[in-house]
């Protein structure tokens, strides 16, 4: 097999000439023949002025290159798309598949024997894992790491559960303009990813659980020397992968056992509901289907162990100090398949065996003394969600988990935005807020709009939580009794489309049900109307591709043509 610079020659109909030309051009950068004869490690550069979560990428790249060169290979840095949550319109999720496609094609098109993928902000690691799962060369991941915690009036502040908490207080009139501006200055106190157990932390931790990055690389803070040291070591491992023709690819690492280990950790750590969508997309790339029934079963048997916001109190730096992912895996060792392989050669079982307990830590609890007796995520079905929905029960109000209420329906994100704060809105604290046309196709891009704000007039009365249901997602940093990812979505003919304001909806989390409480004949009659309603779509570009080919939430909202052709129901 050809390697290094000889891989993936440009097609000119003369291989010798292709290599000759490639060498001639690259020598313009001052490379020697010795350097160009080495195995090549590609390093994806996701630095962007629009992405503060990736603010340390230049330093991580330098350290990674050092590790690659110390091991005798040649590092080659190449740019890819970078996506930040707050700088992507309409949503970062809309662009995740584009990033996955672009990263996959750049890995495929350029001569590299292994690749290091550096990412962190919510959609970037999922996109990169999807890309690498569809690629044929070995890959190792390097999360950028969580940001530092800020402080305000004696309280710790962390993006972005505290962003929502303080914004909620501002909406309710509890704090004024001056204080919310002060908080705004302190919420993100350093570069790095959100420091609570949001989607970025969840996906970084899952990357570690599933053996795709080095131990402790999921949680080491973005600004600490350990993060840079991990980058150098990642470079060393990548170089060894590049030199080994039998090195495992992401497909070899992401076995069904590794993915199930990920589900165990997701339930135990209070992970983001977004991880369910991303894991479904990743498994789709492997020809597998995410086992939602197993996810739910694990949610009944594995309690919440990690005391991090939004389900608990603390932040990623405390999780890291407490032992991070290896310590968490030790706490759920009875459910973990220790034989799962890793990209650095040891099994996950070996990593767990080497864990030294951190004396006195209270962040990572034991199964015997959990933070909460229930797992993080429950999977619901019912006539409103024939293909499923999820709720982060660990961050919900206990007294709302069984609830019957009157629906107050918003037809779109815009409709909700325009009317939610109106004093004329007919809404009461025990109503159920319904948002539709906010799924993968409907919005488009499945925005994190599922965390509908409490209507201002109820917020002023002190209402902190209500049952809210939608085909949207919510930020992993958010909290509340919120049912998400209803599939199929309203814009794809799902039954959320037939709910009317005034209907009654029945939520039964214990029974894993979400149902519209109307007569079956009326239900069927309304559904016929939905099926017959045509939906105009965009006429060109990525928007057209997205609208026509995006899958539903239960399939990861990936594009249908990017899933593995070998997809089966394992
Ligand atoms: Fe990037 Fe939260 S905004 S991780």
UniProtKB/TrEMBL annotation:
It comes from the Bacteria. This is Dihydroxy-acid dehydratase. Belongs to the IlvD/Edd family. The keyword 4Fe-4S does not apply. Keywords: Iron, Iron-sulfur, Lyase, Metal-binding. It is an enzyme of class 4 (lyase). The keyword ATP-binding does not apply. Its EC number is 4.2.1.9. SUPFAM superfamilies: IlvD/EDD N-terminal domain-like, LeuD/IlvD-like. PANTHER family: HYPOTHETICAL DIHYDROXY-ACID DEHYDRATASE (EUROFUNG)-RELATED, HYPOTHETICAL DIHYDROXYACID DEHYDRATASE (EUROFUNG)-RELATED. It holds the Pfam family ILVD_EDD_N. Gene3D superfamilies: IlvD/EDD C-terminal domain-like. It comes from Rhizobium leguminosarum.
